[in-house]
Every structure is written in C-alpha cells, then in structure tokens.
UniProtKB/TrEMBL annotation:
The chain crosses the membrane at residues 42-61, 73-92, 104-124, 131-154, 212-236, 303-323. It comes from Deminuibacter soli. This is Inorganic phosphate transporter. GO terms for molecular function: phosphate transmembrane transporter activity. It comes from the Bacteria. One of its GO terms (cellular component) is membrane.
Length: 327
C-alpha cells in the first residue's frame, strides 16, 4: 500500500511539473502579445486546464492505461521507474529552457521500465508507433491548420483598418487561449490519470473493467492547474518570441489551430504532445508573413529535443527498473 501511495504522489508531482513545464504552451502567445500579464495568463490557463474534464471523455487516459504496455506486465516498480525518469527529464529540459514533450517523457519512461521488467513483448507496439508518428504529425497538422486559418482570416479582413483588426484579435485571443488550455488540460492531465488508473488495477484496488474514479480525474486536473499557476517562464521565452515574433492576430491563429488539433486527437484517444502542436501552429502563423519570419535554427533545435526525448527517458527508466530489482 505504501508503494501505491508513493506512485500516486509521484504521479501528482509529475502533473504539477508538467503544468509549469508546459505552461508555455498555453500562455506563451497571449503573454508575448501582451494581451494579458504573465500572472493573469497563468490564472486564465489554469482555470481552463482544470475544467477541461467537464467537456471531454477520457479516451487518452484509457490509451495510456491499457494501450501502451500489456496490463499483465504492469507492476508498481515499473510505474515508479517510468515516473522518476519522466520527472527527471522534464526538470532537465525545463532548466535548459527546452520545450520538450512531457507526454513523451511519460510514455518513454513507462515503455522503458516495462521492457526492463518483462522484455520486449510487454509493449503494444502498434499504439507506441502511432504516438511516435504524431511527433511529426502533430506539429505538421498544427502548422497546416494555422496557415489555412491565417490565410482565410487575412482574406476576410483585407479591407479592415489595421488598428481595428489589432484590437479585435487582442480580445479574441482570450477565447483562443481558453480553447487551447482546454485542449491542453484534456490531453496532458489524462496521461497521468491513465498511469494512476493502471496502478490501481495492478494492485487489485480496482477491477480490470472499472472506470477511472472521479477522485483520480479531479486530482490530476487540479495538480495540472497548480503547475500551470507556477508558470514556466524559461520556456515561455522560447515558445513566445524565439520561434517567431507574434502579433495578436498570429497568436489567435496559432492558439486556435492548436486547440482544433488537440480536440481532434483527444477525441480519437491519441496522446499527442501539446508542445509539438503549439510549436507547429506558431511556425504556421509565422510562415503566413514570410518564410524568414520563422527562426528555423531555434525550431531545428526543438525538433532535435523531441526526437531524443522518448529514447532517453526509456533508457533512464530501464536503468532505474533494472537497479530496483537488486535493491
């Protein structure tokens, strides 16, 4: 029982860290365009992160709980090893200001620990490869939707006065940031719900056919909201100004495109990276001005961090799980 409690507490800690690590995803554009102050932005994002559970199902949580590692090979040490590896990599990338994917740290850690415990056959590779595919697809979809959305709006508003348009999109960004925070909450908070849920099943606290308890849903959303309130200012700078310079119009387009992408993938139960999604959407908004408006060197460094996240956390979790067998 003590180990289960530790797993649950570490799961909540991961959600808090995920919240402040990924706070930049939800608030970078609205802070950079000065629609809200940093303090106002994190409160706004945290609120919509928390209430996301009212609007969407738990498809992503079910995928994490039962679709990545075969449940018969899930043990508390496996979950614990995955969580420790995920938390460690999140803290490292936060310290360096690298907007890596919290989702992929968790998945990589879970998979690596399961392989160390039971071998390669413990993993459901069809689901893992689908998630890996969205390392490319999520930012690409976000970019394309953002470009289409931006070009459409530009054509509709081409005869409007710039000052009037600027003020309009400053107001609209409140709604786009709220929508993106809903998508962030329903996608990212659900990943740890799945981890805690499978921990409860593996220890026979819940039957295999149970539904996720409400206290798990609320506590994970609450931890994510607390983390968002803490903010992640190092990564805000990278996401909000180093990729491209954003105006309220471009911020609105990027957030709306990101939200649409997250709503779609969440409905399908695909755990995608909110970091990848909003980064692609920001690039798409920048491209509508000109290709050179995007700082491709910064973007290339981000993509490199995305590629190495799953392998690194898998190896770290594998090592932790292997060592734990001798302790």
């Amino acid at each position: 029982m003590g180990l289960l409690l530790l797993v649950i507490i570490l799961g909540w800690a991961f959600d808090v860290i995920n919240g402040f690590h990924d706070a930049a995803n939800a608030i970078a554009t609205i802070v950079t365009t000065r629609v809200l102050t940093p303090a106002q932005a994190v409160i706004w994002a945290a609120f919509f992160n928390f209430i996301a559970y009212l609007f969407f199902g738990l498809h992503v949580a079910d995928t994490i709980a039962k679709g990545i590692v075969r449940t018969e090979f899930v043990t508390l040490p496996v979950i614990l090893s995955g969580l420790v590896a995920a938390i460690a990599w999140n803290l490292v990338t936060w310290r360096l200001g690298i907007p890596s994917s919290s989702s992929h740290t968790l998945m990589g850690g879970f998979v690596g620990a399961a392989i160390a415990h039971a071998g390669w056959h413990a993993v459901i590779y069809s689901e893992v490869f689908k998630i890996i595919a969205f390392i490319v697809l999520a930012p690409l979809i976000g970019m394309i939707v953002s470009m289409i959305f931006s070009f459409t709006l530009l054509n509709l508003l081409k005869n409007s006065r710039p000052s009037k348009t600027h003020q309009l999109f400053r107001r609209l960004q409140l709604f786009s940031a709220a929508a993106y925070s809903l998508g962030h909450g329903t996608n990212d908070a659900q990943k740890n719900m799945g981890i805690i849920f499978v921990a409860l099943i593996s220890t026979k606290q819940l039957p295999a056919n149970a539904t996720i308890p409400l206290w798990v849903v609320l506590s994970c959303h609450g931890a994510m909201a607390i983390g968002t309130l803490l903010g992640g200012w190092r990564i805000v700078k990278t996401m909000g100004s180093r990729i491209t310079h954003l105006t309220p119009f471009e911020g609105f387009s990027a957030e709306t495109a990101g939200a649409i992408t997250l709503f779609g993938t969440s409905a399908l139960g695909i755990p995608v990276s909110t970091t990848h999604t909003i980064a692609g959407a920001i690039m798409g908004a920048g491209i509508t001005k000109r290709l050179s408006a995007v700082r491709w060197g910064v973007s290339t460094n981000m993509v490199a961090s995305w590629i190495i996240t799953i392998p690194i956390t898998a190896v770290v979790a594998c090592g932790i799980q292997w060592i734990s067998q001798f302790v």
